[in-house]
């Protein structure tokens, strides 16, 4: 039986350990909303999202990336209910030479693995989305997208209403 061919999700022939900026989106399995708890709901006051216990683990794992990979900087990120957005930068040394860096896939694999080990079960979708940043305007647009994403959650393409 002929199965449909999956579209490649990485740029062909691109070295994902090259210094530069990368926008990464990682979704939870079946887009389940594991990462936020909603608290403080009332008629007079809208719900205020806060990280769930698992969301706190994900947040800390993101913050720890530069400890494991000094060549990787976390420029900006947000933990959403069922996905995370990361703006990662592979850095050069003071002379402009590339530092020894893992690939972006390796960083994501390690992040998922650390979170899975701490939680005790995998919460992640198999793949992830990446975008190689192409200039300052692209970088600023993605920074703004990450900043405004929590306020636009109900309009987000990953939005999923949780059933009680």
How far is it from the N-terminal to the C-terminal residue, by CA? 40 Å
What's the number of structural domains? 1
Strand order of the largest sheet: 4-5-1-6
Query: What is the N-to-C succession of helices and strands?
Result: EEEHEEHEH
Strand content: 15-25%
Q: What global shape is seen?
A: globular
Average pLDDT confidence is 85
Helix content: 25-40%
Given helix and strand content, the structural type is: alpha+beta
- What would CATH call the class? Alpha Beta
Number of distinct beta strands: 6
CATH fold label: Alpha-Beta Plaits
Low-confidence stretches: none
Identify the CATH architecture: 2-Layer Sandwich
Largest sheet: 4 strands, antiparallel
What's the CATH superfamily, by name?
Transposase IS200-like
State the helix count.
3
Would you spell out the secondary-structure blueprint of this structure?
Elements: E1 20-27, E2 36-39, E3 48-51, H1 53-68, E4 72-79, E5 83-90, H2 104-119, E6 129-132, H3 136-148
Antiparallel strand pairs: 1-5, 1-6, 2-3, 4-5
Helix pairs in contact: 1-2
Short recap of the structure:
This protein is α+β, with helices and mostly antiparallel strands. Helices cover 27% and strands 22% of the residues.
Structure description:
The chain has 164 residues and is α+β, with helices and mostly antiparallel strands. It has one domain (21-36, 48-153): Alpha-Beta Plaits (2-Layer Sandwich), CATH 3.30.70.1290. Helices cover 27% and strands 22% of the residues. It has three helices and six strands. The protein has helices at 53-68, 104-119, 136-148, and strands at residues 20-27, 36-39, 48-51, 72-79, 83-90, 129-132. The chain has a four-stranded antiparallel sheet, with helices on both faces. A hairpin with an 8-residue loop joins strand 2 and strand 3. It starts with 19 loop residues before the first strand and ends in a 16-residue tail after the last helix.
